[in-house]
Amino acid sequence: MPEVIEVSPVISLTGQMSLNEFTGDCLISAVDPSFFRLDGLVAKHGELFSDDNRNAVISSAGAKLFNLDAGSIIGKEISLVLMVPEEKDNNESVMKMVERPDKYRIVGVMDDDNSSFLYIPRATISDLGISEFSQIKAKVRHVDLMEQVRNKVIDMGFIASALSDTIDQANKIFRIVQLILALFGIIALTVSAIGMFNTMTVTLLERTNEIGIMRAIGVTRRDIMFLFLVESSLMGFLGGVMGIFVGFLAGEVANAGLNFLAKNFGGQSLDMFYSPAWFIFVIIGFSTVIGFFTGVYPSFRASRINPLEALKYK
82 with 128: CB under 8 angstroms? Predict the structure, then answer.
């Protein structure tokens, strides 16, 4: 395909790796050095192999099979026994165990405590005659050609997926979550606005006599109105601060739970909920404005109270 500028095939096998007196099962992927770059993989310790020598990259879970941590397994040499498919005369495929004559030197460790896997150079098993690949990583010339290349691959009878598919699916999920959270936010905002309005109205009734005294000693209607507006705005401000605090704690708990699940299922940690500074200031400012407007009517009523009637109010 002229749209593709680079490919990296992968041969996936199962097998056993041995070091000293320890032996463990693992998933083995025979790849070219370019695979790591195309797949965006990095080593937590050591480095990724960049040639076709008998070097290998192991997962941290694989290192634990030998009672070694990720740092101390670097430089160790392991023996491999591969389960290689073999076709019989009746076109049936059977698995045969092939012990590799040479050992592989561990040069890098990937951060994965759940799956025991090993990457080895594909050129080192070329003598096994394996002609089928489990997957092929491909890089297209431009992102706009990705859909065209994928359709061609599907027309050839293969399954094709792109990073953009994963991003699109994630964006759809995020949009649904945002809509749900926005709905809850609107409901919470409405309830809180009604609650603040009721609170200011009750406060007005409870402080009618106090308002009469203030009016009698010379406090103007504008001052009474300003006092109630400040109180309602302060109530909205404090509500926004408390909401941000509770939301931040809930987000941290959710992130910790999701990262725990991702780690247990072999995924990578990712913070789905975060609170940028501008968002915090916007929320606090918006809640203050809502508090101000919910206090407009009660403050207007408070400023219009007749001082003589207010002094008689109990």
Answer: yes
* Structural domain span for residue 143: 4-161
User: Are 75 and 62 part of one and the same domain?
Assistant: yes
Residues 88, 178, single domain; the answer is no
Contact 240, 196 (CB under 8 A): no
Q: What is the pLDDT of residues 254-303, one digit of tens each?
A: 888 877 776 666 556 667 777 788 888 988 999 999 999 998 998 998 88
Collapsed DSSP state (helix, strand, coil) of residue 110: strand
Based on the fold, state whether residues 279 and 170 are members of the same structural domain.
Answer: yes
Same-domain check for residues 120 and 12:
yes
Q: Coil, strand or helix: which one is 302?
A: helix
**Beta-carbon count within 10 A of 291 CB:** 26
Which of helix, strand or coil describes residue 3? coil
Specify whether 39 is located in the same domain as 175. Answer: no
Q: What is the pLDDT of residues 171-212, one digit of tens each?
A: 888 889 888 988 988 898 888 889 888 988 888 888 888 888
Question: Comparing C-alpha atoms, which of 233, 216, 200, 217 is closest to residue 302?
Answer: 200
With CA atoms as reference, report the closest residue to 118 among 130, 102, 107: 107
Residues 38 and 172 in one domain: no
Task: Look at the chain and report how many structural domains it folds into.
Answer: 2
Distances from the Cα of 253 to the Cα of 239, 246, 274, 306, angstroms: 21, 11, 11, 53
Question: Whole-angstrom Cα distance, residue 226 to residue 299?
Answer: 7
